[in-house]
Write a structure and sequence with these properties.
Mean pLDDT: 96
Distance between the termini: 51 Å
Number of domains: 2
Radius of gyration: 19 Å
Structural class: alpha/beta
Bound molecules: ketopantoate
Number of helices: 11
Number of strands: 12
CATH class of the largest domain: Alpha Beta
Oligomer: single chain
Strand content: 15-25%
CATH superfamily of the largest domain: NAD(P)-binding Rossmann-like Domain
CATH architecture of the largest domain: 3-Layer(aba) Sandwich
CATH topology of the largest domain: Rossmann fold
Largest sheet: 8 strands, mixed
Low-confidence stretches: none
Length: about 325
């Protein structure tokens, strides 16, 4: 099975690293400094402390900023995993469209709402799987990927149908790779549950400049996280998402404990002076809230503050 990972950053690095232990033929797509580091290999620091070095020869590397795709790469991948940031979804979807084989499919394992629509406009809903993960990782200045928390990876058809044989084979491969896949018959609900987690953790840890575990150490932060998460839950329920019964505090606590050592992706973005995913996280909750008549004041404040910090990089 030939699998491409588009956006081989922190989470994409974990996926590529795990899949390199299977028989899959791998293609990593990245750009800039990350692509340069990947040329010589991928270093993963596992949650248990072991260091794995995957040689650069283990995968084919595409630098998405370096000219047109090699002909041989076109229509060649059975599975294309998009794990890049939301602001790269358009560009990555176009690469996915070029490299996915006729019978292949694309999986989005990204934060926020709206990614699947962008990808589907390129490859069609029938060739798309939604996805969501609670694995956590961050990347250091030398490009080393620190896999800080083992979670799981949910995936499923957007229409809730059962996996076809190739999709089942892919799920087995993810299992062999140690990525704890779960096939979901309601992937949209899983994407919303992850959004609720992101709303609770990402902006607050990013603004405070703390690792995820601090939410359980600083009660004032915990209250803000829970409030933001409850708003997202109300919006999800108002928009018809079947969340079932969720104990919000317990659910958040479990994710915070399993990702305690992680620097949330939004904090990593702010530290590197990059644009964050605030628009597809709090921004998505606010706009869906407006659509369904649910007020989201906490998410509005968090969005404003993160935007302000993003802008502060341009001011003296
Ligand atoms: O998705 C994450 C992120 O960093 O964006 C969590 C699960 C919150 C882990 O940090």
């Amino acid at each position: 099975m030939r699998i491409a990972i588009l956006g081989t950053g922190s989470l994409g690095g974990v996926i590529a690293g795990c899949l390199s232990d299977t028989g899959a033929d791998l293609v990593c797509v990245s750009r800039g400094g990350t692509a340069e580091v990947l040329e010589s290999g991928l270093t993963i620091f596992t949650p248990e402390g072991a260091v794995e070095m995957i040689p650069g020869e283990r995968y084919a590397l595409i630098d998405s900023e370096k000219g047109p795709l090699d002909e041989a790469m076109c229509n060649s991948c059975d599975v294309v995993i998009i794990s890049g940031k939301a602001d790269s979804t358009s560009a990555l979807s176009s690469i996915a469209e070029d490299i996915v084989s006729e019978s292949g499919f694309v999986v989005s394992v990204q934060n926020g709402l709206g990614n699947t629509g962008i990808i589907a406009s390129r490859v069609g809903w029938d060739r798309l799987l939604g996805g969501s993960t609670t694995h956590s990782a961050w990347r250091d200045g030398e490009g080393g990927v620190h896999w800080t928390g083992r979670g799981n990876l949910s995936l499923g058809k957007m229409d809730g149908s059962n996996p076809n044989p190739t999709e089942s084979e892919f799920v087995s491969l993810l299992d062999e790779a140690g990525l704890n896949p779960i096939w979901s018959s309601d992937i949209l609900a899983e994407i919303w549950k992850k959004l609720m987690i992101n709303v609770a953790i990402n902006p607050i840890c990013a603004i405070a400049g703390v690792r995820n575990g601090a939410l359980l150490e600083i009660p004032e932060l915990w209250i803000q996280s829970i409030e933001a998460m409850r708003e997202a839950e109300s919006v999800a329920r108002a928009s018809g998402i079947e969340l079932g019964r969720i104990d919000i505090e317990d659910y958040l606590k479990k994710v915070v404990i399993s990702t305690a050592d992680n620097r949330v992706s939004m904090l990593q973005d702010l530290m590197a002076g990059r644009k964050t995913e605030i628009d597809v996280i709090c921004g998505a909750v606010i706009s869906k809230g407006q659509e369904f008549g649910v007020k989201t004041p906490r998410n509005e404040v968090l969005l404003a503050l993160v935007r302000g910090i993003e802008m502060s990089h341009n001011h003296d």
